Amino acid sequence: MHAWPASEVPALPGQGRDLRIHDTATGGLVTLDPGPVARIYVCGITPYDATHMGHAATYNAFDLVQRVWLDTKRQVHYVQNVTDVDDPLLERAQRDDVDWVALAEKETALFREDMTALRMLPPRHYIGAVEAIPGIVPLVERLRELGAAYELDGDVYFSVESDPHFGQVSRLDAAAMRLLSAERGGDPDRPGKKNPLDPMLWMAAREGEPSWDGGSLGRGRPGWHIECVAIALDHLGMGFDVQGGGSDLAFPHHEMGASHAQVLTGEFPMAKAYVHAGMVALHGEKMSKSKGNLVFVSQLRRDGVDPAAIRLALLAHHYRADWEWTDQVLADAQARLGRWRAAVSRPDGPSADALVEEIRAALATDLDAPAALAAVDRWAQLQDTQGGTDTAAPGVVSRAVDALLGVAL
Known about the structure:
This protein is of the alpha/beta class. Helix content is 43%, strand content 15%. Strand 3 (37-42), helix 1 and strand 4 (75-82) form a beta-alpha-beta unit. It is globular, with a radius of gyration of 22 Å.
C-alpha cells in the first residue's frame, strides 16, 4: 500500500530542541532523545467515514512530532497502518450494500487526499492489515508456543496474565478496563475465556465474512491489536520512540499491543513513550462514527475552505485537550490565516530570529502549538502596527511556519 506525497519541509537556520512530551505510561513529561533516526508508529484509520476532524487532529499532533525531530536534523522513520479488514468496516459495507474491499480502497484514497491537502508528512511505510497477514500468522503461532495464547471454539486468544507488565500503559484498574473493553471492540463477557480482558489474536472464519489461510491456526483473520504489533516489529523493532494515536486507543489497543510485543520478544517496553491526542466534539458530544456527528475534511475542502485554515483550527488547541469543533473555531482560523498572509506579504518587517526560537521552544514543550500560534500572532501584530526594516523577516516567518507548523503561507 502506498502513502501520499510529501510536501517539502524548509530548512531553518540553527537547530531545533529535543522534545519533551507527555507519556501516558508514566503520567508525566519525558524527554525523548532518539538516535540519528527517530522511530514512530501511529495507528491508522479503519477506512470508512474518513477523514473526520478527530482523525485530522490526531495526525496533526504526530505530524508536529515529526517536524520537531526533523528540525533537530534527525531522520524520521514513521510507520502507519490501515485496518482494512475489521468488524466495523464489514458492518458498514453490509449496511450500504457495497463491497468491503471497494469501500476500504475508496476511503483510504480519500484519506490520502486529505492528508496531502493538510500537508501531513507521510509515513515511510503505510501498511494495510490484509497485506500484513503473512507476518501476523507466525506471531500468533509463536504466542501459542510460548503458552501465552489459547484456543476457544476455533478462535485464538491472548492471555493478558502472560505479560507481567500488563496494565502499565493505560494505568487503569481491572473494572475500568472491563468497561472499556466492552465499549471498544472486546468481548469480556464471552464464556470460556481465561480472563475477561483477554483479546482475540485470530478469529476463525465466519460464514459470509472474508478469511485467509492461517497455517496451523486455520482459516480466519487477525485480531485488531496483533495487526499493529506485526507491522511495528517488522519495520521499527522494539523500543521505538513513540507509539501514537487518539486517547481512546490507550486501552485496549495500545495496552494489548504492548503486551503482545513484550511477550513475543521478552523485551520491555515496546515503546519509549505512549502519546495520545485528545478527542474532538461536535454539539457537546465526542465526534464519532457511531454517533454520526462528523465533520469531514473533504467536505470542508469541497465547500472552498483553505486546508491551511483547517490546519490552523487544529493547531489552536493543545493536542492532548478535548475540544469542540464549531463554526467560530473555523472562522477564527480563517481570520488568523488572513492576518499571517498579509504580514508576510510585505517586503520587510520586524526581525523574526527570536520568533523562530519561540516556536521551537513551544513545540518542544509537549507540542504547545497554541503558544507557537500566539508567538506568530505577536509578530504579525507588530508588523501591522510598527512594521520593520528586516528584508529577510517575512521569508523567515513563512519558512518557519511551514517547517514547524505545516502551514503554507
